[in-house]
Design brief:
Layout: H1 2-7, H2 12-15, E1 16-17, H3 28-46, H4 51-57, H5 62-69, E2 74-75, H6 77-86, H7 92-98, H8 107-118, E3 121-126, H9 136-150, H10 154-165, E4 175-181, H11 183-186, H12 192-206, E5 211-216, H13 224-228, E6 230-235, E7 241-247, E8 250-254, H14 257-271, H15 277-291
Parallel strand pairs: 3-4, 4-5
Antiparallel strand pairs: 1-2, 3-6, 6-7, 7-8
């Protein structure tokens, strides 16, 4: 793969995200990526252009265009914009590319932030520390770790996270509850020192009014990581509920109430398999003491 990239006059590492992982053939991210590639091909064919002709129009090689159309690489945002403009696609190619992104200016991210900001209750399930309860050091470490897979600008994402943190700091914050697996307490993000501070911060956050953190212990829950996935249930002041679910490296906004009911049902089932808030804090304290005490990383 590297030898091919190095041979290109416009290296794919400079125009597309060649390092994105393959979440698997059934992942909706791959379906959307295939749809983007097909849209590029369809618009190109409709204009009677070869891959080389399109490449010339947007200052890329025909090989780069072929990789985009085959879904092997994701065009950078600016590259997708150039392709859309060159083929007069009316924003279709750009919109498909935008849906693959987790940058703060992506439409999906903005929509979710809008719902999250207005929510009166947030219920969250995840295998890592919830974003709204992450320490600055932890979230920087996890964002920077994911840049090779998700692309984008780390500083932009951190600024967006800072805006999200304000949701729980406002005078009328939403009720917030989170279910996470015990594995999240042991998954070292950044360093052991960062994990210690993060877990101590998680304990402190869980003692604030309106915030509840509950842990699903290893015992009796070996299958839970596969079952629970990652999602946030957002109850809006209108009485409507929406869900943001993460699948692979792409998020999905669920607004159809039948589908939303499925997620709320899963969350209710999760609550039958987790520790109560005080027992959860006790477990977190034990993990800090046994795994992240200062002598473990000094």
């Amino acid at each position: 793969m590297l030898s091919l990239i190095e041979e290109l006059s416009d290296p794919l590492s400079q125009v597309g995200d060649a390092t994105m992982v393959d979440p698997g053939p059934v992942d909706p991210y791959q379906a959307r990526l295939a749809e983007l590639g097909l849209a590029i091909r369809d618009h190109r064919v409709a204009k009677g252009w070869t891959q080389a002709h399109l490449g010339k129009k947007v200052a890329l090689s025909n090989t780069a265009i072929a990789h985009f159309e085959a879904g092997k690489h994701v065009p950078r945002r600016d590259v997708a914009r150039r392709i859309d403009d060159a083929m007069e696609a009316g924003g279709r190619i750009w919109n498909l590319r935008d849906e693959l992104d987790d940058n703060p200016d992506a439409k999906l991210v903005q929509r979710v932030f809008g719902y999250e900001s207005r929510a009166v209750r947030i219920r969250h399930a995840n295998g890592v520390i919830p974003a709204l309860l992450q320490s600055p050091e932890y979230e920087r470490a996890i964002i920077e770790k994911n840049i090779p897979f998700l692309g984008g600008d780390a500083e932009d994402k951190l600024r967006h996270r800072a805006r999200r943190h304000e949701i729980l700091k406002r005078p009328d914050p939403p009720a917030f509850s989170a279910v996470l697996t015990e594995a999240a307490l042991y998954a070292v993000i950044g360093s052991r020192s960062i994990m210690r501070d993060q877990l101590l911060g998680l304990i402190a956050s869980s003692q604030r009014p309106g915030i509840e953190v509950r842990i699903a212990p290893f015992e009796g829950n070996a299958d839970l990581v596969q079952v629970m996935g990652e999602f946030s249930i957002l109850d809006l002041p209108t009485g409507r509920t929406v869900v943001y679910a993460s699948s692979g490296v792409r998020g999905l906004l669920v607004t159809k109430q039948e589908a939303v009911a499925g997620y709320t049902g899963i969350y209710d089932q999760l609550l039958t398999r987790v520790l109560d808030p005080e027992a959860s804090r006790t477990l977190i304290r034990r993990v800090v003491r046994e795994t992240y005490s200062e002598h473990h990383y000094t």
